[in-house]
Amino acid sequence: MVAKQHGIGTDAGEAPANGVAQTRGAMYELNRLVCKTMLEFKLNPYPFSPYDAVSKAGAAPLSTWLRGLLKEGLTPVTFGDVSLTPGGFKVISGDVIVQELAKVMEPERCVFALDVDGVYEENSRVIIPELTPSKIKRMKVQSGDDATGGMKLKLDAAAKIAAGGTKVCFVSGYRRNEFSKALKGLDFYGTVVRT
Q1: Distance between CA atoms of 82 and 60, rounded to whole angstroms?
Q2: Is the pTM of this model over 0.90?
Q3: What is the spatial distance between Cα 16 and Cα 7, in angstroms, rounded to a whole number?
Q4: Containing domain of residue 132, as a range?
Q5: Residue 75 clears pLDDT 90, i.e. is over it
Q6: Domain limit, last residue, from 58, 92, 126
Q7: Residue 143: inside a domain, yes or no?
Q8: Do 117 and 83 fall within a single domain?
Q9: Residue 59 — pLDDT band, cuts 50, 70, 90?
Q10: CA 79/CA 127 separation, integer angstroms
Q11: pLDDT at 140
Q12: Which one of 2, 37, 123, 134 is most buried, by most CB atoms within 10 A?
């Protein structure tokens, strides 16, 4: 929301310095709140920016670094960010980050927590229980007014992740039991994307 107010999106462009600072501040504050909650539940968060991941990948494989954190009982946590590129500032969406991490880690499943129950059929509130990457490519989904590409970017990322053999789950982050089931690999109310 802050990014959108300042005209910062997934396409590089000019942005006011104050807008970049406010956007990054909002992203880091959200990350702080997520990690605080994780600490309360003894999940031992290890927050890192996308840039940390890139720098670690140069010295040692990113997967080795992340698996090392997991082995030590830590839970790696990353988040969307704002990056200066040759074309200007742009948002690095968490959807793109998870797509890149899935390539490196080859997880069994990837869970997207949404503010809705899953992917709906067009112009309805009926959940689509299962999708394939090829079906996603045929879907007409609007980007919406989200600065990071909204559901369209999430579905595009999910299709690429699923094409690599990972089961992708879309579930409401507000339904704790369903979210927990998705994390554990159990049947849940939402949408699954797989080949």
Answers
A1: 24
A2: no
A3: 9
A4: 108-195
A5: yes
A6: 92
A7: yes
A8: no
A9: very low
A10: 27
A11: 82
A12: 2
Bridging pattern class, strands 130-131 and 88-92: unpaired
Signed CA dihedral, 195, 54, 62, 8: sign only: negative
Q: Which of helix, strand or coil describes residue 45?
A: strand
31 domain residue, yes or no: yes
Helix (H) / strand (E) element for 2: namely helix 2-5
Best-predicted range by mean pLDDT (4-13, 33-42, 85-94, 148-157): 33-42
**Cβ atoms within 10 A of the Cβ of 1, count?**
9
174: Cα separation from own chain's centroid:
16
Report yes or no on 103 lying in a domain: no
Say whether both 132 and 162 belong to one domain. Answer: yes
In a domain? residue 134: yes
- Does 11 share its domain with 75? yes
Please identify, among 30, 65, 92, the residue that sits at the C-terminal boundary of a domain.
92
Are 19 and 85 in a shared domain?
yes
What distances in angstroms separate CA 15 from CA 24, 140, 164, one per listed residue?
12, 30, 35
- Are 79 and 94 spatial neighbours (Cβ–Cβ below 8 Å)? yes
Contact yes or no for 20/95 (Cβ under 8 A):
no
Taking residue 106's Cβ as centre, other Cβ atoms within 10 Å add up to: 12
Three-state SS string over 66-97 comes to HHHHHHCCCEEECCCEEEEECCEEEEECHHHH
